Amino acid sequence: MPIQLPQKHNAADTTIFTVMSSLAQQHNAINLSQGFPDFPIEHNLMQLLYEAASHGFNQYAPMSGLPILRDAITRNFKQRYNIDIDADHEITITPGATYAIYTAFSAILRAGDEAIVLEPAYDSYVPNIEMNGAKAILVKLEAPTFSVDWNKVKSAINTRTKAIIVNTPHNPTGSIWGKDDWQQLAELVRDTDIMIISDEVYEQLIYDGKPHYSVLQHPELRERSFAIYSFGKVFHNTGWKIGYCIASANLSRSFRRLHQFLSFSVNTPAQYALAKHIIQPGLQAVNIMLEEKRNYFLKLMHNTPFKMLQQTNGSYFQLGSFEGISDMPDTEFAQWLTTEYGVATIPVSAFYGDKTDNKLLRFCFAKKEETLLAATERLSLVKSC
Ligand SMILES: Cc1ncc(COP(=O)(O)O)c(C=O)c1O
Description:
The protein is of the alpha/beta class.
């Protein structure tokens, strides 16, 4: 009899992202499934990584992160959002955003607590809540715009609710929050002890001149929030796995109490390189390049039988419907598309606890033009089945 260890969460052992990526590999398919770019990082960033290693930045960094990186983030937020952040007490560098989200949940939750998740949702949220002995309460966003029904959120709140996790710009739908959403949230949590985790990893991937509203710009919510970011999404280096958490000094203290015994510190040369990179004057905003890719992808998708939902406002994902092509469940359809036509995508049911199937696929357009062209050429051949 093999040893049985406790199951710490109810999700599957292998996620759909792994399934689709290995299916893509097996069938030599073009991979528009997982959210990572297929183009190189900036040359300057590569050189800075080399410079860091050759200048001796090879030992443990301080627990909260390299001071030059925390200072650079402070300056960057002042410049972009006019927000003042205390680099010493309010920023903690982490090995990616997923880790920061887990650590924030761990800082907040006790066994038996509840945390609200708006779905479709990034797949780590619910397992992270369960790994802390708490229960995820799922509230659906309203398809096809994926806006929040605040009455539904209100009904999900009770005395056990200790956290709400929100995500703007949103994976997988590309919807973004307006000021009014933050105000509605503030009114719901006022006079409660509910904490907010604000997943803002796509804050710089926002299009058509729209602003990103951060939880940090809302003074009332800021006091009770962990705002989470990822350099991987901004600088096309998801494999570096460097992110950060911004929270009040009080909340950061709780966060660091856990962080110091989880990873303790984060890759030093990568922190050095990012710090030097983000303080360069005239650094080109990433959204200009990605907006062009979004427009190019949408134009090409006109030649296919897929119906695109509203163009994405943020993130590097676009949803498209295969209604009219097939009645298959979306997971089956995505697998069929990979094996028969050689294009891998993610079925949107994977982002729901109850696997809601709206016949939607998520396409990642953070790819070279030639990749997008080749993928859409294949998709234009798809026949109804
Ligand atoms: C909404 C969301 N949050 C967090 C992450 C993870 O970021 P990181 O790679 O820094 O852990 C992702 C990555 O896909 C994401 O889509």
